[in-house]
Amino acid sequence: MKIATYNINGIKARAQALPAWLDEAQPDVVLLQEIKSVDEAFPRELFEERGYNVETHGQKSFNGVAILSKLPLEDVSRGLPRDDSDEQARWIEATVVGKQALRICGLYLPNGNPVELQDDGTPVPGGKYDYKLRWMDRLHARAQELLADETPALMAGDYNIIPQAEDAKRPQAWLEDALHRPESRAAYRRIVNLGFTEAFRARTQGPGHYSFWDYQAGAWNRNDGIRIDHLLLTPTAADLLQDCQIDAEVRGREKPSDHVPVWVELDL
């Protein structure tokens, strides 16, 4: 089973590029981020005519996540638990059944910039960086539940986290950015260290592998990228891992997103 994550940076802008990639790559399941559309405006027919079941958790103009699946989607849930007041559309999960059941969780983790700190170095309450770290605390709690369930599961999406210096062309430029600050990386490690396998690093080591290139300053042409789109697998899902790749060439095509697809192949 081929499962991809892809921040498309707006479904309207990617109405041609996304179907073209689907036709070429033929993923079984795709987790989309930044659809930037309310549910009723999402162009379901583009994907249903290609054999995909579609579930969305949308929001007007911002955020928004979706699941496309050639297999039926069961037990769909929207919104990351533990904060009923959070109205941002950043989390969707469902179960797909191949040879066995797999719980798939799609996420769009908050960016967190600008970083606003108090005199003691802690985030300003209610600020964007504070929201990011609190959201990651909630993600940690959901991750623990997924591990306790023992059903194979993955959490995939745009994490807005540069885990290590080798995941950026110019790591020094990101030291004070919410994507690479020590608090952000520590929160990410706390989740991974629960027992998750980061699929790409389980298959590929070393620098020079990126999933995002800014539209500005010729970043793509200079390969000035960062790797912030990740797939975390529970131990029972990691046992099924066959491959993980970044489709970097997609960034060089017509009307691309600033992100590219990252996918895993599981023996399901």
Automatic annotation (TrEMBL):
<feature type="binding site">
    <location>
        <position position="158"/>
    </location>
    <ligand>
        <name>Mg(2+)</name>
    </ligand>
</feature>
<keyword id="KW-0460">Magnesium</keyword>
<feature type="site" description="Interaction with DNA substrate">
    <location>
        <position position="259"/>
    </location>
</feature>
<keyword id="KW-0464">Manganese</keyword>
<keyword id="KW-0479">Metal-binding</keyword>
<dbReference type="GO" id="GO:0003677">
    <property type="term" value="F:DNA binding"/>
</dbReference>
<dbReference type="Pfam" id="PF03372">
    <property type="entry name" value="Exo_endo_phos"/>
</dbReference>
<dbReference type="GO" id="GO:0046872">
    <property type="term" value="F:metal ion binding"/>
</dbReference>
<dbReference type="GO" id="GO:0006281">
    <property type="term" value="P:DNA repair"/>
</dbReference>
<feature type="binding site">
    <location>
        <position position="160"/>
    </location>
    <ligand>
        <name>Mg(2+)</name>
    </ligand>
</feature>
<dbReference type="GO" id="GO:0008311">
    <property type="term" value="F:double-stranded DNA 3'-5' DNA exonuclease activity"/>
</dbReference>
<feature type="active site" description="Proton acceptor">
    <location>
        <position position="259"/>
    </location>
</feature>
<dbReference type="InterPro" id="IPR005135">
    <property type="entry name" value="Endo/exonuclease/phosphatase"/>
</dbReference>
<dbReference type="GO" id="GO:0004519">
    <property type="term" value="F:endonuclease activity"/>
</dbReference>
<feature type="site" description="Important for catalytic activity">
    <location>
        <position position="229"/>
    </location>
</feature>
<dbReference type="InterPro" id="IPR037493">
    <property type="entry name" value="ExoIII-like"/>
</dbReference>
<feature type="binding site">
    <location>
        <position position="7"/>
    </location>
    <ligand>
        <name>Mg(2+)</name>
    </ligand>
</feature>
<keyword id="KW-0378">Hydrolase</keyword>
<feature type="binding site">
    <location>
        <position position="259"/>
    </location>
    <ligand>
        <name>Mg(2+)</name>
    </ligand>
</feature>
<feature type="domain" description="Endonuclease/exonuclease/phosphatase">
    <location>
        <begin position="4"/>
        <end position="259"/>
    </location>
</feature>
<dbReference type="InterPro" id="IPR020847">
    <property type="entry name" value="AP_endonuclease_F1_BS"/>
</dbReference>
<feature type="active site" description="Proton donor/acceptor">
    <location>
        <position position="158"/>
    </location>
</feature>
<dbReference type="InterPro" id="IPR004808">
    <property type="entry name" value="AP_endonuc_1"/>
</dbReference>
<feature type="binding site">
    <location>
        <position position="34"/>
    </location>
    <ligand>
        <name>Mg(2+)</name>
    </ligand>
</feature>
<feature type="site" description="Transition state stabilizer">
    <location>
        <position position="160"/>
    </location>
</feature>
<protein>
    <submittedName>
        <fullName>Exodeoxyribonuclease III</fullName>
        <ecNumber>3.1.11.2</ecNumber>
    </submittedName>
</protein>
<dbReference type="InterPro" id="IPR036691">
    <property type="entry name" value="Endo/exonu/phosph_ase_sf"/>
</dbReference>
<feature type="active site">
    <location>
        <position position="108"/>
    </location>
</feature>
<comment type="similarity">
    <text>Belongs to the DNA repair enzymes AP/ExoA family.</text>
</comment>
<feature type="binding site">
    <location>
        <position position="258"/>
    </location>
    <ligand>
        <name>Mg(2+)</name>
    </ligand>
</feature>
